[in-house]
Amino acid sequence: MLHAKQLIFHGGVILLVGLLCGAPLGSAVVHKKSEETVRAWRVAHSSLVMGGVLLLALAGILSHLQLSAFSLALMVWAVVASSYAFAVVLPLGAHYGLRGLTPAPPLLNRLMYLGNMVGAGGLLLGTVILLWGAYAAL
């Protein structure tokens, strides 16, 4: 199934980005950076690793869901887009010391806010469709 292969590939990419975020996390700890900096890298590392694993797990259950072709594609691409949005904004935020939780200036923070909204919205949409497909398969 093409969708499962897409999830496996993109899950692997996101997992790799998350694992690579472990290097600046370790560096921040070793160089005794502020707790806020360490926390930001910890969030980027752990969230992206979990996001990659989520995509890989989702690939394994696709065949058990009862969804139309459109709903299946929407779910897959919503979670993939969400994962890439987080793969960009979480390391950027950790590097520049921004969180992107509000659309406040500077411009980079506003862009990060947009990325966080895409990430959160995509995961929410994908999860609702996942639950819909799981319930229909009962």
Structural class, from secondary structure content? mainly alpha
Radius of gyration: 16 Å
| SSE pattern, N- to C-terminal | HHHHH
Let me know the number of strands: 0
Regarding quaternary structure, what we see is: single chain
| Mean pLDDT, all residues | 98
Short synopsis of the structure:
With about 140 residues, this protein is mostly helical. The protein has helices at about 1-20, 20-30, 35-60, 70-95, 105-135.
Description:
The chain has 138 residues and is an all-alpha fold. It has one domain. Helices cover 82% and strands 0% of the residues. The chain is built from 5 helices and no strands. α3 runs antiparallel to α4. The longest helix has 30 residues.
